[in-house]
Specification:
Layout: E1 2-4, E2 7-11, H1 17-30, H2 34-38, H3 44-52, E3 56-63, E4 66-77, E5 84-93, H4 102-117, E6 119-124, H5 131-140
Parallel strand pairs: 5-6
Antiparallel strand pairs: 1-2, 2-3, 3-4, 4-5
Length: 159
């Protein structure tokens, strides 16, 4: 797909389940959350369906054949207009490969995909203590200060 200083960036397809599993390992290590990204891995059939659909985008950065970073994004079709947004859900680069332009390269590749698909914006969230992520996103986009709420699927019992 594209190249960034000796690395290649590749969009995963339904046949790339092994690379998706490698990306899950990178996420688990980078976010210090190996349990969430490794304990209950999706089945190959699930990953094939996810990667083969049009609502999910996975990009990997590779050093040769080794996955050293990547991003996972969702395409959100809008209801108020015939357009979509892309939400970067996760983005990480393995520690030895950071500060080499890979995260920027991944986002630039996603911008090209978004343009091809007619998306009008890409958005991402960052936690305030994550200064490197905030600096990266501030360099590439416009900051909005919003609040984020996690609402449980099951309603709380009535009081």
């Amino acid at each position: 797909m594209s190249s960034t200083t000796g690395y290649t960036i590749h969009q995963l397809s339904a046949d790339d389940t092994a690379q998706m599993n490698a990306l899950l390992s990178v996420f688990g290590e980078a976010f210090d959350d190996a349990d969430s990204y490794g304990a209950k891995r999706p089945s190959p059939a699930y990953l094939r369906q996810l990667l083969g659909g049009d609502a999910f985008i996975a990009l990997v950065a590779r050093d040769g054949v080794q996955v050293v970073g990547g991003l996972a994004a969702y395409v959100l079709r809008k209801f108020e207009q015939e357009r979509s947004e892309i939400y970067i859900y996760d983005l990480a680069v393995a520690a030895p490969h950071r500060r080499r332009g890979l995260a920027t390269g991944l986002i630039r590749a996603l911008q090209r995909i978004g343009a091809e698909r007619g998306a009008y914006v890409i958005f991402v969230q960052a936690d305030p203590p994550d200064a490197p992520a905030i600096a990266l996103y501030a360099k590439l986009g416009v900051r909005e200060d919003v609040l984020h709420f996690d609402i449980p699927v099951r309603p709380a019992p009535a009081a």
